[in-house]
Design a protein that fits this description.
heterodimer; A: 665 residues; alpha+beta; four-stranded antiparallel sheet; 11 strands; B: 153 residues; 2 domains; 29% strand
Chain lengths: 665, 153
């Protein structure tokens, strides 16, 4: 019964999404305002039904309804309740339903929070969002329905959730990431609405900015959560693999970051209008492309599940229609929104332009590397894969100048800035950065030249960004309060958010550079009772014990870690065998603090001996990756709360609901 | 040329040069880091380059896994049901590595015909087989069928 309700709710959701998409556009085109205002109630109704469908699916998991095919293949009676709920989005069908659920939530938020928008804009935005919903609801209902039944014969028990996904990470990572992915649809919808209208102004940018910041915040946290999950769950101790699906989420993030900055320039100075719309379209297109890459199975990846050519084809077609229509619209109307204003060579506009260029080029290079296997296959050049060294080389070399600019961005004024002033304000920071960089490069022991060079550049950039941003923050605070310390948090939330994000970025870079260079990784064979020294820590393999989990049996290793004779940590890595599938999983034992992570993961027991294959890693500053990402996320949140986004805009454009009818008629 | 126009030209030129340099860098880096996939049969036929980082995939042959008594060295055979290649590896094998499982390794083919793997990849889903391995096996089967005359009458 419940699954049927869910199915019906999806169908109603689709009907309402269709109405939300088509009727308002017809209303606007034929000047019948009564038709146009249907967008908002349709959006609310669509949210209600999609939400209902989602709850129905979650309930089917909760109630162990294995007559539902999707539940049967992704859950099991012995699965703990939290993971049963998480399993709702553990497979292809459910994760798409989560996608649409998030989309309808964003749509609802736009419908409810956009009172300050001109009615025409709001209507068009909702209509575009309706179009995206239609695309995905059709996809779910006709190719990937999570409510399909296994009748009349259904299994007594399900075949279990992939053990890899039975982890708290499963509860956070996908929803956060999807909130980000889908959030960019709002910026996309605003861009299309602006193109339809043929006008972009400061107000438009002001409406789009908080939505983009919200999506960016979710995406930042979502990617960080995924990285953290991979770090402790995959058991290799790595936190980024340039896996196609990681790239699929990283490319929209890069474009989203570019969009944040170009929107700022559009709001403050009225420049980059056409480019901003193009970026908004591109960011969302990359979200769709990411969905295609994950769902179609054209690429080999950790995340690849459900390889069905029909699904891949559908998303490809939907992607083609969406991107194609948007680009045609852009080609026809884009010239209307562009301006020919100019700015001085040294100005914040210029820095933002370079920022955008670099981010766009990096995105394209990552795209090339990600798609290379498909391209080569298509041209019969053999089965290739592109290794992480490609991505690392390209990314590091291109990003270094960008991070250099992160130090300058807050200082340089809009419109025009004097070189002499710039030199005066940055020379001390420059000196400090060079000195610290050199010290780090020289003091690093037993490293080859390229390593030292990387350390120099890394340390230089970190100091550069930190000092310049903090000093600038301090100066602004001093203007607010005689005691700058008290003024630090009374500056405008926009600036506060920017400093948080920039400082967070510097901390992430710190974590990346130093954990990569200073990590000690040992794969070795260790017998019970033996001790191994790694980077000054003594790892004593005390014993193993058996553990009975809710749906797995585990062998737990007991490792006592000593430094200078004193116990610093006790680690409990596990090998878990899940009862239903019989699959083995590695659970790393980690002791983390800001300075270093101690990481132990057990491989297999070596047959005919008392020895185990063991990974022992000492990884300095890995925590900085997550700490920095959280600061960046907080930065996005702070920026969103700026009052000027919420200030009731006087309808000085003269477009009230009534005026539209008469004006349009 | 007017100074403003000249400045714009310089500006556009520097953008073009910058982006061009980035693309050149990318293509160069890509050329260095493309890893081709080979099946055991292709390696036996001598199609694979030696001492170059390549990928080799196949099924782990039952009973072929041999371990060193005192280190993490391990040797095993990979097959596409047509030919076998012996792979040697030192390190920790992934959880899903087992006999009969389809896996992909990354490594170099040495002059003596041995394959020395630096990485062993097994996907995190038991039912999942790398499409490359699946295709290699299918291809080997098809070729074997084509070679064998039909025996039924």
């Amino acid at each position: 019964m419940i699954p049927e309700i869910g199915n019906l709710a999806l169908a109603f959701g689709l009907a309402l999404a269709l109405i939300q998409f088509v009727v308002p556009l017809v209303g606007i085109a034929t000047h019948r305002w009564r038709l146009a205002i249907i967008a908002k109630p349709a959006a609310i109704g669509q949210f209600f039904f999609v939400c209902l469908a989602f709850v129905c699916l979650a309930y089917s998991f909760y109630a162990n309804d294995f007559s539902v095919a999707y539940v049967a293949s992704n859950s099991n009676r012995s699965l703990p309740v939290a993971y049963r709920i998480g399993a709702t989005w553990g497979g292809h069908e459910g994760s798409l339903l989560l996608w649409v659920f998030m989309l309808s939530s964003w749509t609802l938020a736009v419908a409810l929070l956009s009172k300050s928008l001109p009615a025409l804009t709001r209507t068009r935005v909702l209509s575009v969002l309706g179009f995206v919903s239609v695309g995905f609801l059709i996809f779910i209902l006709f190719t990937s329905n999570p409510f399909d039944r296994l009748l009349p014969v259904f299994p007594v028990d399900g075949s279990d959730l992939n053990p890899l996904l039975q982890d708290p990470g499963m509860v956070f990572h996908p929803p956060l990431l999807y909130m980000g992915y889908v959030g960019f649809s709002v910026a996309f919808a605003f861009a299309l609405a602006a193109l339809l209208e043929g006008r972009i102004d400061t107000l438009w940018a002001r409406w789009v900015r908080p939505w983009t910041q919200a999506a960016w915040m979710f995406m930042t946290l979502g990617i960080a959560a995924g990285s953290w999950w991979a770090y402790y769950e995959l058991g290799w101790g790595g936190w980024w693999f340039w896996d196609p699906v990681e790239n699929a989420s990283f490319m929209p993030w890069l474009l989203g970051t570019a969009l944040l900055h170009s929107l700022a320039a559009t709001e403050k100075r009225g420049v980059f209008k056409a480019w901003t719309t193009l970026l908004a379209i591109a960011a969302f297109s990359f979200c769709l492309l990411g969905t295609f890459l994950v769902r179609s199975g054209v690429l080999t990846s950790v995340h690849a599940f459900a390889n069905d050519p029909v699904r891949g084809t559908y998303i490809l077609v939907f992607l083609g229609v969406t991107v194609g229509a948007s680009l045609i619209l852009f080609a026809v109307r884009g010239s209307k929104v562009s301006v020919t204003s100019w700015y001085n060579l040294l100005s914040r506009e210029l820095l933002f332009l370079i920022n955008n260029l670099i981010l766009a080029v990096v995105t394209i290079m990552i795209l090339l590397g990600t798609l290379q296997p498909i391209i080569a296959d298509f041209f019969n050049l053999g089965k290739v894969s592109v290794g992480p060294p490609y991505f690392n080389t390209v990314f590091n070399i291109l990003m270094a100048p960008l991070i250099f600019l992160v130090g300058l961005g807050p200082i340089v004024n809009w419109r025009k800035y004097e070189y002499s002033e710039l030199v005066k304000r940055t020379r001390l920071s420059l000196l400090a950065s060079i000195v610290v960089g050199l010290l780090v490069a020289v003091l690093a022991d037993d490293k080859i030249f390229t390593d030292r060079l990387q350390l120099f550049v890394g340390a230089f950039l970190i100091v550069w960004v930190l000092v310049l941003n903090i000093v600038d923050w301090w100066k602004k605070a001093a203007k607010k309060n005689r005691n700058p310390l008290l003024g630090l948090f009374s500056i405008s939330p926009s600036f506060l958010g920017m400093y948080f994000a920039h400082i967070g970025l510097a901390i992430v870079v710190f974590g990346v550079v130093f954990s990569s260079h200073l990590s000690i990784e040992k794969n070795l064979r260790l017998g019970i009772g033996q001790t191994q020294e790694v980077a000054g820590y003594e790892f004593y393999f005390e014993k193993i014990s058996d553990v009975v989990g809710p749906n797995y049996d585990a062998i737990r290793g007991h490792f006592i870690v000593k430094q200078d004779g004193e116990n610093v940590a006790i680690l409990h890595p596990e090998k878990r065998q899940y009862r239903v599938s019989g699959q083995w999983m590695t659970e790393a034992g980690i002791d983390a603090n800001l300075a270093r992570d101690l990481y132990v993961a057990m491989g297999e027991k070596i047959p005919e001996s008392n020895d185990w294959a063991v990974r022992i890693y000492v990884k300095p500053f890995v925590s900085c990756l997550w700490l920095g990402s959280i600061l960046m996320g907080i930065g996005g949140l702070l920026a969103m709360t700026d009052k000027r986004y919420r200030a009731k805009v006087k309808q000085k454009l003269g477009i009230s609901d009534d005026a539209v009818v008469s004006g349009a008629a | 040329m007017k100074p403003l126009r000249k400045r714009r030209l310089m500006f556009v030129l520097s953008i073009v040069i910058g982006v061009g340099a980035a693309v050149a860098l990318g293509l160069f880096a890509m050329k260095q880091n493309i890893n081709l996939f080979y099946s055991p049969q292709e390696i036996v036929q001598g199609n694979a380059p030696k001492n170059t980082l390549i990928r080799l995939g196949g099924l782990v042959v039952a009973g072929s896994v041999k371990r060193a008594p005192d280190s993490l060295k391990v040797m095993f055979d990979l097959t596409d049901n047509a030919e076998n290649i012996t792979v040697s590896y030192e390190g920790i094998l992934p959880d899903l590595f087992r006999e009969g499982q389809g896996i992909v390794t990354m490594g170099e083919l040495k002059d003596d015909g041995n394959f020395v793997a630096s990485e062993v990849l097994a996907k995190h889903d038991e039912n999942y087989m790398s499409p490359e391995v699946a295709e290699a096996i299918k291809k080997a089967e098809a070729e074997a069928k084509a070679r064998k005359p039909k025996t039924y009458n």
